[in-house]
Task: inverse folding
C-alpha cells in the first residue's frame, strides 16, 4: 500500500466498487479497503434485479432515483464491457410482479396507480392470466395476473462486481483486501485511516462498508443507523432458456440457472439458510411456474441486506469532518449505475441532485 | 410432511457407520442408518455382500473381510434405509432426507445424536485432459470391478500414487487383466520423509508386508512402472487417446484409451462444513478435517464424525472409530455411564492405535506433489462443472481475490452441481501459491445445504412453513 | 452413442439381465448394474455434453461426487447414472448441455 491517496473507499462491495470506479475513471487515485474472503458481503447475496416498479410508496423520490439509475444502466454496462471485456448480462425487457389471486392483483394495481399518480414515469400494465401467458408461456394455471413495467430489468450481480473490479484496477485503482479499518480521523484537511498498526492518508474518505458503516460513521461525524435483514435465495441447475423476463421472485440468469427468492428475516448477523424459509421460497417459485417442480437446486445461500429503518438510502457528506462521505442502500444492484455516474461526481464536488434531498440520516432523529 | 424421531442417526453405511450402528444397538440405542447406495458397505466394501464376481477372491482378503461386518449388521436387524440422501442437516440435528424407491419421499428426522460416516473421496487430480472421456479415478475403476464385474478391455495406464493405486493394479493382475503401465508420481523425497516415521510403520508390520507384497507382485507381472513422474497430460480430441508424461525433463507418451488417476483420498467435508462444524488443516495429509475430540464429537454438540470423514486412516481404523463415537453418543443419550464407556473404550483405542500407526509413514511416502495439487499448466480445468481453468483462478488472484469465496464469486468456480467437491482443494492450493502463503490461511468455500442437488419440489415439501410472503407485504423493495 | 468399449466383464456369478434402452436402442445388461456402469459396459464413451462448452464427458468417480455421469433416465434429466440401479424397460438418453423444462 501507498502512504497517501486522493480517496479511500471503505468497502469493496457493489456500492463501494461502483463509487470507487466512478472516482478512479475521473482521474482520482483511489484505494478500496475491503474485508476478508468470508466477510459478510451483501454484494454476494443479490438477486440481480434492476428494479423500479413498486418502489416509492413512502418516498416518490426513491422511485425516481431508482428509475434514474435504471435508465443509466445500459450505458454503464456498455462501458464496463468496452473497458474490460466482461459482459455483465444486463437486460431490460421489463419485469413482472405476479399475483396468485385476484385480491393480490387488486392490491398491487392500487399501489401502482398511486405511484404513477405521483410520478408519471412509473409506467405499468395490468395483465390478466391469458395476457400474462402470452408473454410468459411457462406461467402456470393458478395465477390471476401480473403487473408489468418496461422500467425493469436484471443483470448478473457477480459479473457486475467482477467487471467493476477489473475496470477499477485498469483505471489505476488499488484494491486492498483482508483489511480491517480500526480508526479514521481527520488530520489537517486529510484523513488518516488506520488498520491496526498500519495506516495511510487520504484526501477524502467514502464509507461504503455496508453493515460495517455503523461503527465507522461516528468516527467522521456521520450516522449510519443500519441493521441486517437476512434474505435467502435458491439457485438451480442450468436450464435451457424458458423465461426471458425477470419476475420479482423468479428469474433466469444468462447461464440458464434459475434464481428464486426471497425472504426478509430479522435474525441479526446470521447469514445461514433454514429449511423452512427455503421450503417457502421453493413453493413461491413453483406456484407461478409449476414446471420448475422437478428442477434441481444446486445452491442455496443467505445474505444480510443493509437496512435503514425506512429502507431508503443515505448519501451524506459530513459537516463535522468535511471530506468524509457515507453511502448506504439495500439496492446496490439497481443503484450501481447511479452510484458510478451521479454519486461519484457529487463526492468530487458536483452539485447534489434534488432527487436526493430526503436521503440524509437526520430523518431518523427522534 | 412427516417427522421421525430417532435417538441415533448414522449417515453412511461403510465400515465406520456399520460399526457405529452395531455399537449403538449394543448399548440399548435404536439407531437408524441411512445411505445413498443400494447395498451396505460404503465404497471400500462396495457390494461385498452381493458380489457379481464369480471369483471375488481376485479382490483380495482385505475386501472379503468386509463381508463379516456387513453380515453382522444385516443380521442385527438395525433400521437401515438404503438409497436415501440426507441433504440438509442442522446444528439442531434436524435432518431433511429423501428416500428413493417404493414408499419413498421426503421427510424430516429429529435425531438425539448423529454419527456422520460419509467417508472420503478421491483427491482431485487436475491434469490437462483429465475431463476427457476415457479418464476416470482409480477408485472409480475399482468400484466398477467390485460392483459391476467390469475391468479394462484394453490395457489401461494407472497414474498417480498411493496404496489404492498399487492395490488396484494388483487386483487387475489377479484377474488376469494386463496393466499397460503405472506412472508413479510419488516424489523422490517422499521415501526420505517416510523413513522418519519408520517407527510407526514397524509397529504395523502387517500393513508394511501387504505393501511389499503388492509391489512385488506388480514387479513380477512385468508391469512398466515409471517412477518420479513430474508432469502428466492426457491427449486426445474427443476422448483419451494417450498420456504424455515427463521424467527427468524428458517427455514420453503411451497410447491408451483408458487412463486411471489417483493421488490419495481426502475426507469428505461437505456435510460437516454445511452444518458449521469447525475444521482444521492436517499438514501431514494435506487436507482439511473436522475438529473432533477423542470420541469423534465435532464442535457441535451431539454431532460426531467417524471413519475416514474425520481423517484418513482406512477401513480397519474406521470400525473402532465408529464404535467410539457410538459409545459416547450412548453416554450423552443417557444409555451408558462413563465408567462402562471407558472400559469399553480401552480395547477400541488399542485397535484404533494399531491401525493408525502406519499413517504418518504412508502419508509421507505418498505425499502428492505440489505440481499435481496446484497445476502449473494454466489450461488445466480446475472446476470440472463450470470449466474454470487454473489460469482463470490465477487471474482472479491477480484481480485481488484472496480466498476461494471471492474467487467463486468472480469466476463461478465451485458453483456447479458437485458444489466444490472436485475443485475446492485445488482452488485453495492455487490461491495459496499465488499469495505465497499456507493453504489453511486461504480457507475453503462456504458450503451450504442442500448437500447434493434436490428438486424444488423436494425442498418445498420438506417442512411445513408459514407463508413468508404475507410477512413481507408491506416491505419496501 | 455406442462406440469402442473400454471395459469388459469378468466371469459373473449369474447371468441375469434386464433390457434397457440407450437412445432408443435395446441393450441387455446385468441386473446388478447402475446406469453409468451399464453405459460403459454397452460401449458408450461419452454420456453427456456440458452446458458450458458442449464438451463430452463420461462417468469419472462412480461414487456420486463428480456429477459427470448425468443422464436422462425415464424422462427425468440430470440424474446421476452411477447412483441409479438399472431397471427393465429403462429409457436412458444422454444429456446435451443444459436440461429443458417441459
Result:
Amino acid at each position: 500500500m501507498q502512504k497517501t491517496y486522493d480517496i479511500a473507499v471503505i468497502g469493496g462491495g457493489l456500492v463501494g466498487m461502483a463509487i470507487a470506479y466512478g472516482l478512479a475513471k475521473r482521474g482520482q487515485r483511489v484505494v478500496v479497503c475491503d474485508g476478508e474472503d468470508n466477510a459478510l458481503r451483501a454484494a454476494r447475496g443479490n438477486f440481480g434485479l434492476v428494479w423500479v416498479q413498486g418502489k416509492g410508496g413512502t418516498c416518490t423520490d426513491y422511485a425516481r432515483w431508482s428509475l434514474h439509475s435504471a435508465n443509466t444502466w445500459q450505458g454503464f454496462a456498455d462501458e464496463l464491457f468496452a473497458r474490460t471485456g466482461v459482459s455483465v448480462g444486463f437486460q431490460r425487457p421489463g419485469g413482472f410482479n405476479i399475483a396468485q389471486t385476484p385480491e393480490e392483483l387488486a392490491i398491487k394495481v392500487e399501489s401502482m396507480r398511486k405511484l404513477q399518480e405521483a410520478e408519471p414515469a412509473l409506467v405499468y400494465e395490468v395483465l390478466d392470466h391469458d395476457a400474462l401467458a402470452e408473454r410468459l408461456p411457462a406461467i402456470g394455471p393458478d395465477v390471476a395476473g401480473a403487473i408489468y413495467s418496461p422500467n425493469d430489468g436484471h443483470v448478473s450481480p457477480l459479473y457486475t462486481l467482477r467487471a467493476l473490479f477489473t475496470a477499477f484496477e485498469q483505471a489505476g485503482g488499488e484494491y486492498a483486501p483482508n483489511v480491517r479499518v480500526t480508526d479514521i480521523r481527520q488530520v489537517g484537511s486529510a484523513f488518516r485511516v488506520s488498520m491496526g498498526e498500519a495506516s495511510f492518508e487520504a484526501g477524502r474518505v467514502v464509507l461504503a462498508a455496508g453493515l460495517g458503516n455503523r461503527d465507522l460513521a461516528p468516527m467522521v461525524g456521520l450516522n449510519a443507523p443500519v441493521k441486517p435483514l437476512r434474505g435467502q435465495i435458491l439457485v438451480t441447475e442450468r436450464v435451457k432458456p424458458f423465461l426471458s423476463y425477470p419476475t420479482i421472485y423468479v428469474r433466469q440468469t444468462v447461464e440458464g440457472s434459475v434464481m428464486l427468492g426471497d425472504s426478509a428475516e430479522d435474525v441479526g448477523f446470521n447469514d445461514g439458510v433454514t429449511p423452512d424459509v427455503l421450503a417457502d421460497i421453493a413453493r413461491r417459485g413453483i406456484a407461478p411456474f409449476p414446471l420448475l417442480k422437478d428442477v434441481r437446486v444446486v445452491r442455496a445461500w443467505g445474505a444480510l441486506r443493509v437496512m435503514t429503518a425506512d429502507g431508503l438510502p443515505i448519501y451524506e457528506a459530513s459537516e463535522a469532518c468535511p471530506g468524509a462521505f457515507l453511502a448506504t442502500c439495500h439496492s446496490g444492484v439497481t443503484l450501481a449505475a447511479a452510484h458510478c455516474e451521479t454519486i461519484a461526481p457529487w463526492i468530487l464536488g458536483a452539485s447534489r441532485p434534488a432527487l436526493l434531498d430526503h436521503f440524509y440520516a437526520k430523518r431518523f432523529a427522534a | 410432511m412427516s417427522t421421525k424421531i430417532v435417538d441415533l442417526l448414522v449417515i453412511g453405511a461403510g465400515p465406520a457407520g456399520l460399526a457405529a450402528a452395531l455399537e449403538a444397538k449394543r448399548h440399548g440405542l435404536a439407531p437408524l442408518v441411512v445411505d445413498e447406495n443400494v447395498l451396505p458397505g460404503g465404497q471400500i466394501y462396495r457390494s461385498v455382500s452381493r458380489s457379481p464376481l464369480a471369483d471375488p477372491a481376485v479382490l483380495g482378503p482385505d475386501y472379503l473381510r468386509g463381508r463379516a461386518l456387513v453380515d453382522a449388521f444385516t443380521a442385527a436387524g438395525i433400521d437401515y434405509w438404503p438409497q436415501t440422501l440426507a441433504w440438509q442437516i442442522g446444528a439442531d440435528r434436524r435432518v431433511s432426507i429423501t428416500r428413493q424407491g417404493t414408499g419413498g419421499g421426503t421427510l424430516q428426522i429429529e435425531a438425539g445424536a448423529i454419527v456422520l460416516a460419509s467417508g472420503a473421496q478421491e483427491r482431485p487430480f487436475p491434469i490437462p485432459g483429465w475431463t476427457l472421456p476415457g479418464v476416470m479415478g482409480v477408485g472409480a475403476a475399482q468400484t466398477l470391478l467390485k460392483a459391476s464385474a467390469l475391468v479394462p478391455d484394453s490395457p489401461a495406464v494407472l497414474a498417480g500414487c498411493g496404496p489404492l493405486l498399487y492395490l488396484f493394479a494388483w487386483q487387475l493382475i489377479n484377474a488376469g487383466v494386463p496393466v499397460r503401465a503405472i506412472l508413479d508420481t510419488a516424489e523422490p523425497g517422499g521415501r526420505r520423509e517416510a523413513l522418519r516415521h519408520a517407527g510407526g510403520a514397524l509397529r504395523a508390520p502387517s500393513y508394511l508386508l501387504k505393501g511389499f507384497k503388492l509391489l512385488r507382485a506388480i514387479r513380477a507381472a512385468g508391469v512398466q512402472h515409471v517412477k518420479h513422474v513430474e508432469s502428466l497430460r492426457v491427449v486426445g480430441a474427443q476422448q483419451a487417446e494417450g498420456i504424455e508424461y515427463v521424467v527427468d525433463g524428458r517427455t514420453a507418451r503411451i497410447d491408451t484409451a483408458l487412463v486411471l488417476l489417483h493421488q490419495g483420498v481426502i475426507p469428505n467435508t461437505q456435510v460437516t462444513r454445511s452444518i458449521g462444524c469447525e475444521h482444521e488443516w492436517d499438514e501431514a495429509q494435506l487436507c482439511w478435517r473436522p475438529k473432533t475430540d477423542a470420541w469423534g464429537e465435532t464442535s457441535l454438540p451431539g454431532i460426531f464424525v467417524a471413519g475416514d470423514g474425520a481423517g484418513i486412516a482406512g477401513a480397519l481404523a474406521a470400525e473402532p472409530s465408529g464404535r467410539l463415537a457410538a459409545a459416547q453418543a450412548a453416554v450423552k443419550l443417557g444409555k451408558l455411564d462413563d465408567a462402562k464407556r471407558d472400559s469399553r473404550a480401552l480395547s477400541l483405542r488399542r485397535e484404533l492405535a494399531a491401525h493408525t500407526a502406519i499413517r504418518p509413514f504412508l502419508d509421507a511416502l505418498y505425499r502428492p506433489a505440489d505440481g499435481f495439487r496446484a497445476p502449473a499448466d494454466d489450461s488445466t480445468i480446475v472446476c470440472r462443472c463450470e470449466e474454470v481453468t487454473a489460469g482463470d483462478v490465477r487471474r482472479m488472484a491477480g484481480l485481488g481475490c484472496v480466498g476461494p469465496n471471492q474467487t467463486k464469486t468472480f469466476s463461478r468456480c465451485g458453483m456447479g452441481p458437485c458444489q466444490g467437491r472436485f475443485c475446492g482443494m485445488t482452488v485453495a492450493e492455487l490461491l495459496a501459491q499465488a499469495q505465497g502463503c499456507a493453504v489453511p490461511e486461504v480457507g475453503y468455500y462456504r458450503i451450504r445445504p442442500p448437500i447434493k442437488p434436490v428438486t424444488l419440489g423436494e425442498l418445498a415439501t420438506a417442512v411445513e412453513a408459514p407463508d413468508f410472503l404475507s410477512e413481507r407485504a408491506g416491505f419496501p423493495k | 452413442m455406442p462406440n469402442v468399449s473400454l471395459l469388459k466383464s469378468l466371469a459373473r456369478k449369474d447371468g441375469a439381465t434386464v433390457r434397457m434402452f440407450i437412445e432408443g436402442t435395446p441393450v441387455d445388461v446385468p441386473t446388478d448394474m447402475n446406469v453409468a456402469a451399464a453405459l460403459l459396459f454397452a460401449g458408450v464413451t461419452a454420456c453427456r455434453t456440458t452446458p458450458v462448452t458442449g464438451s463430452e464427458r463420461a462417468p469419472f468417480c462412480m461414487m456420486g461426487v463428480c456429477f459427470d455421469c448425468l443422464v436422462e433416465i425415464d424422462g427425468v434429466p440430470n440424474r446421476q447414472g452411477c447412483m441409479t440401479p438399472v431397471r427393465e424397460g429403462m429409457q436412458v438418453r444422454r444429456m446435451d448441455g443444459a436440461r429443458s423444462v417441459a
In short: Chain B touches chain C through 52 residues (CB under 8 Å). The CA atoms of residues 331 and 338 of chain B lie 7 Å apart. Chain B is about 35% helix and 20% strand.
